Amino acid sequence: MTAGPDDGKEAESITSVTMASVLRLLPSTAARLRFSRSLPFSAAASLFSPPSQAVLYDQHGPPDQVLRVADVPPVELGERDVCVKMLAAPINPSDINRVQGVYPVRPPLPAAVAGYEGVAQVHAVGPAVTRPISPGDWVIPSPPSFGTWQTYIVKPEDVWHKVRDDVPVEYAATVTVNPLTALRMLRDFVELNSGDAIVQNGATSIVGQCVIQLAKVQGIRTINIIRDRPGSEEAKEKLKQLGADEVYSESQLDVKNVKSLLGSLPEPALGFNCVGGNAASLILKLLRQGGTMVTYGGMSKKPVTVSTSSFIFKDLSLRGFWLQKWMNSDKAEDCRIMIDYLLALVQEGKLKYEMELTPFSEFGLALDKSLGKHGSQPKQVLSF
């Protein structure tokens, strides 16, 4: 399509816009650029992101030693790029593992930007963007992508998924990694019906809390195992308020006839293990004949040990789940549909978990809390 006389005048006026005024684009101005598709791209070539701050690392190692907050220069938008202002991003255990260099998939070094999920607000869009995304919209990278611990990001339009903005920002920021893991594990391994039961360890984790609530929505009963520690009775009560049917500490299950503790609950068909060691063995004891245990984490760093009789006489199955592998298949659209479902549950008050918003300016404090330097703390979510 060729530009007409009026298009040429508009292109000339846009080209004359100074860098400073572009960086102060109001949503209405950005929206006008968004829909001026008849303009040659050179007319919008001066559209840049604002200067940004980012959490960077040049080598793998202890996060409190290798991470640094640094200024990042403006980035020019391509024709189909979207510039977003980050609103919130969590510090997940997998983020820590990537920095340490022990996670299977890691961003290239040096100057890697940390962070993997989060929620942002659209700041500006390239002139050839076709997705229904406009300045002011809330978006998340879906599937998640590296580099969310920075104030502004420029990435292609197909990275971003528009989400509802009537939920607390910390839930939109954390909806992908933990809640989606819980949902997929409940759906992917055993066909569960209302009235069936599952068992899990690590029940106080975010995934564990989500499992309890998502199972409740489906009428599935939950048996939950937590560590023996100070405050365990309070933790049990919190989980029951979320909808847990039974909550036991590991020592309570250290009995010969462990299934006698279930009372009227059916023997669980499915178990979720994120701890390993003895906590995994307790799940195997509770599973019914032909049951399945899915391992998605190993917080104790102890191996899963299975008795020969568990295989021969109980015919148990052991499986593994890694969300990133699932999302990197052909599940991108399915992932976005489920994210919308999960955020709808949040909006309805049916899905909640404990988090703490910490300003990005206090990144060091949020990191220390995530590393356990301040004792047991809620999940840290950076607020930009």
Break the fold down into its secondary structure elements and pairings.
Blueprint: H1 5-15, H2 19-23, H3 27-35, E1 52-57, H4 63-66, E2 68-72, E3 81-90, H5 93-100, E4 112-113, E5 119-125, E6 138-141, E7 152-156, E8 160-163, H6 169-174, H7 177-188, E9 197-200, H8 206-217, E10 221-226, H9 232-242, E11 246-249, E12 270-273, H10 277-286, E13 292-295, H11 308-312, E14 317-320, H12 323-327, H13 332-347, E15 355-359, H14 363-370, E16 379-383
Parallel strand pairs: 9-10, 9-12, 10-11, 12-13, 13-14, 15-16
Antiparallel strand pairs: 1-2, 1-4, 3-5, 3-7, 3-16, 5-6, 6-8
Helix pairs in contact: 7-8
The N- and C-terminal alpha carbons lie at a distance of 41 Å
Overall 3D form:
globular
* Portion in strands: 15-25%
- Count of DSSP helices? 14
Please give the number of β-strands. 16
- Poorly predicted ranges (pLDDT <50, ≥5 residues)? 1-45
The structural class is alpha/beta
Global mean pLDDT: 89
Q: How are helices and strands ordered from N to C?
A: HHHEHEEHEEEEEHHEHEHEEHEHEHHEHE
Largest sheet: 7 strands, mixed
- How big is the Rg? 24 Å
Helix content: 25-40%
Can you tell me about this structure?
The model is unreliable at 1-45 (pLDDT under 50). Strands 3, 5, 6, 7, 8, 15 and 16 form a seven-stranded mixed beta sheet that branches. A six-stranded parallel beta sheet has the order 11-10-9-12-13-14, with helices on both faces. Helix 7 (177-188) crosses helix 8 (206-217). It has helices at 5-15, 19-23, 27-35, 63-66, 93-100, 169-174, 177-188, 206-217, 232-242, 277-286, 308-312, 323-327, 332-347, 363-370, and strands at residues 52-57, 68-72, 81-90, 112-113, 119-125, 138-141, 152-156, 160-163, 197-200, 221-226, 246-249, 270-273, 292-295, 317-320, 355-359, 379-383. It has 384 residues and is of the alpha/beta class. The two termini are 41 Å apart.
